[in-house]
Write a structure and sequence with these properties.
By secondary structure, the protein is an alpha/beta fold. About 50% of the residues lie in helices and about 15% in strands. It folds into two domains: about 140 residues, Response regulator (Rossmann fold), CATH 3.40.50.2300; about 50 residues, no CATH class.
């Protein structure tokens, strides 16, 4: 079931063999999230393969395949390993919660559902997932940027007279051409005071001499 799917809303998959529980969770969550539901583990795995949810609400005790078995399959697959899973259960034994948390569950919701606590627990996990997604996207963008940056390193052979550089092909290049090809630097040309004195002082003197003759 997919109710009023919107691309900007988080996607939650509800997995429970009891239609009453599924219906109740849908009523609690349908105004904030895009929902899909499955009544057994095998169908849930097919739905997850079709579209990765942002969060899975997974019943522990189900016929055929238990929630713990579904969880183990998810964690063994790198594609689904990072999907947060909240177990929903009527069991009130600490060892069962410990087993689920040891498998990688992020939280537990107990039946009968407390509406306020259910919403808060789910909202907290969705926000954490969104923050992780943002950090992952920022990391990928940074790595992509760094991959485009070219660095100059090691010993570079440079002519002591003309300042040309010997490149990897053992041919000689102008300094600015070599640096442009091996970095993100761009060049603009000017003239320093010392060079201006050397290269232009004679023209300056000749100009003044010419004016004196007039």
């Amino acid at each position: 079931m997919n109710q009023n799917a919107q691309p900007d809303r988080a996607k939650i998959l509800i997995v429970d063999d009891n239609p009453v529980n599924v219906s109740l969770l849908e009523r609690i969550l349908r105004h904030e999230y895009d929902l899909r539901s499955a009544y057994d583990g095998s169908v849930a795995l097919k739905l997850i393969a079709e579209q990765l949810p942002d969060l899975i609400l997974l019943d522990v005790m189900m016929p055929g395949m238990t929630g713990f078995e579904v969880m183990q399959i998810l964690k063994d697959d790198p594609v689904t390993a990072d999907i947060p899973v909240i177990f929903i259960t009527a069991l009130d034994e600490g060892k069962n919660e410990a087993q689920g948390l040891d498998l990688g569950a992020v939280d537990y919701i107990h039946k009968p559902f407390d509406i306020i606590l259910t919403r808060l627990r789910i909202r907290n996990q969705i926000e954490l997932k969104q923050q992780r997604n943002l950090l992952k996207a920022q990391k990928m963008a940074l790595e992509e940027t760094l991959s485009r940056v070219k660095l100059l390193e090691g010993i570079i052979s440079i002519c002591m007279y003309c300042k040309q550089i010997r490149n990897d092909q053992q041919t000689w290049q102008q300094l600015e051409q070599y640096i442009s090809e091996h970095s993100e630097a761009k060049f603009s040309h000017g003239i320093c005071p010392a060079c201006a004195e050397i290269h232009f002082s004679q023209y300056h003197l000749e100009d003044h001499a010419g004016q004196g003759k007039k």
